[in-house]
What does this fold into?
Amino acid sequence: VESSIPEPQREAWKKYSATGFKSKDDFQKETVRHIETTLARSLFNCDEKAAYSGTALAFRDRLIIDWNKTQQRQTFADQKRIYYLSLEFLMGRALDNAMLNVGLKTAAKEGLGELGFRIEDVIQQEHDAALGNGGLGRLAACFLDSLASLNYAAWGYGLRYRYGIFKQEIENGYQVEIPDYWLDFNPWEFPRNDVTIDVQFYGWVNKYTDDEGKQITSWQDGEIVTAVAYDVPIPGYGTATVNNLRLWSSKASAGEFDFAKFNSGEYENAVADEQRAETISAVLYPNDNMDRGKELRLKQQYFWCAASLHDIIRRFKKSKRPWKDFPEQVAIQLNDTHPTLAIVELQRILVDLEGIEWNAAWEIVTKTFGYTNHTVLPEALEKWSVPLIQHLLPRHLQIIYDINLYFLQQVERRFPKDRDMLGRVSIIEESQPKTVRMAYLAIIGSHKVNGVAELHSDLIKTTIFKDFVKIYGPDKFTNVTNGITPRRWLHQANPRLSELIASKLGSYEFLKDLTLLNKLENFVDDKDFKKEWAEIKYANKVRLAQHILSATGISVNPKALFDVQVKRIHEYKRQQLNIFGVIHRYLAIKNMSAEERKKLAPRVSIFGGKAAPGYWMAKTIIHLVNKVGDVVNNDKDVGDLLKVVFIPDYNVSKAEIIIPASDISEHISTAGTEASGTSNMKFVLNGGLVIGTLDGANIEITREIGEQNVFLFGNLSEDVEDLRHNHFYGNHQIDPELNKVFDEIKKGTFGDEGAFSSLVSAILDHGDYYLVSDDFNSYCKTQDLIDETYKNQDEWVSKSITSVARMGFFTSDRCINEYADSIWNIEPLQVKEEAEVRSRT
Ligand code: 73E
It folds into this structure.
């Protein structure tokens, strides 16, 4: 390609080809130029917002250069690419990350300082990119960071929602949702108005024989919506690789929204068409771990799958290879079942449009896809109504039925005696109306299925997918324990700790190979080191205390033990157990003598997290936390011994402040319900200890860092079923201490008892599905042990350092290498011009 361009032309390009700034002076020059020209501002009206915009534009230019080169390099290399399909990418802010990844944060800090700005204030001007609900979306973001940092040729594909997850405000203790319009200035995306794909909906299926006697199946008519690509550069850390995240935005197709309609007086209809089309990518569904079966959500899923697949195929076709090579060029990973329609769409393209025979097509499909399961919660498993699919995607429904038919025939041959098997594993559930079980379709259409932590991967094999293990054998099912990127979750969120670690290990190499942290164990008895370690934690707590004061008006003592539970509010995550424990502690303090109170370690109980707008129980939990806070925080008997805080609008950028400031964090889901959890890893990596159940990745964290460094409690997952049964059929007794808590709520201590009756009666009257009462005693005792342990600060700091030293396993780099090895069968691309050794600051 390159040689087809004449020499003089190439010279002219080369001479002026952008190189990007490398020093403080160049950074200032570029930033001022952008502020003065791109933004049309001057020294005299440059506020922090404008300083952010100018800085972002300067760094964006810097990224674009490596981005273009990376895309060229990957095209020339002509090897397999990974496509990560996710309806959620919870990216957070980009500027700080970009600065650190290209190694120019110090230059920017000094440069901005001379221009009259503090870099921290400038960074805070950026709006979070919050295109996700919680762990699943943030995992996708960590994966993109690792894929780029490890030089894999990888693309993310998602939707460009106009509204991300809502902003949460607390009014009189209740959650209020505010729309998150985040696009008014977003320098990190590039509209590609020339990259569009028309996506079809509705219509009907025409089967006929053509003039040459060939059977043709064609999906006709219906409605066309156009997908427009928006590209986001994803820089790797300390490498020249900048990968691409492609987000699709919907708009009315040129054909639908035509000027003919305007001219013929159908102005209003034309506008309505346009709005209907744009609605598809308008808003992220705000439900975490919950399927609501809404038509618009199905439209989103197909729109995004179809656009992404057609884009991938267009790229594949440029290689001029035969179709059978497709799985050697393309690996598609399905982030949960949300993109399962991509399986059906690829089969449709191969069979209906490319004329490939069914079985040959199906082999290509199954070799291409891998499916990651993230949950066993029944309410989160997607089931789409057959009539809805029939209406929206009539040809896809036929293909689903055919996939099911061939699959069930195969099962029948293998298990002729198991009569119930066919009904159990059928993709179609014979309910009223019939539904399509998306997880089954995803398993059948993929070559590998993985869970996200060991316990979870074992559970899916023995419970929800048991029959499929019999059918396919155990090798189709595997585990890839989740991980987190240490760049954002240590280096960026906790720069002082990162610097201290680097000073002991001799370099920042641990950010690329996290197992190097193990050398920190040599310093667990180093007095000066421990002192600095503790000072950094304290400084982080002071910073969080300032945030709490400005966000809630509550003043907390940074010397108190900070006990944090921040995550989406969900009954299975058991924030109710935490707040009942807090009430229990409050009652205990009230009953203490002055002498006893003196001995108690002061504590701040910090909560944060959003409730899905339609999830009543979750909203009630938020309300209770706030009401308990009102009472406890104003009780003179209690003083600093206990404060209860709900931090509003928990998101990625708040997590970056909260996580480094915790002494103890809570990961207390009912055993067997939290597939992995990833914030548990973030907290420990930042020197916090955890209280947790034997669930998800807590188990593997314990194995790595040692039982003596974790506060475990509660029943085991293997006992949950029996305990639940016993709640209904045995002589089940509610924990007496928990009953006292309920009495206090009923007395109206925290306001109208009726407001919280649903929480109490879930335990007293409705079988206590999440085992709050069963685990209450063990939970409270473990909290007492935490108080005792915290009094010995020297021992506490040793535990903290040892734990961090042993966290190497939980980097998302390890995780991505495991996917590459065992699922994608792909090697990283060698990057010749490996980024010059940069001052990694
Ligand atoms: O345990 C977490 C896990 O760490 C799990 O609940 C979460 O995924 C994380 C990353 O693996 C998750 N989210 C969803 N399912 N599992 C989900 C389901 C439907 C809509 C949105 C999110």
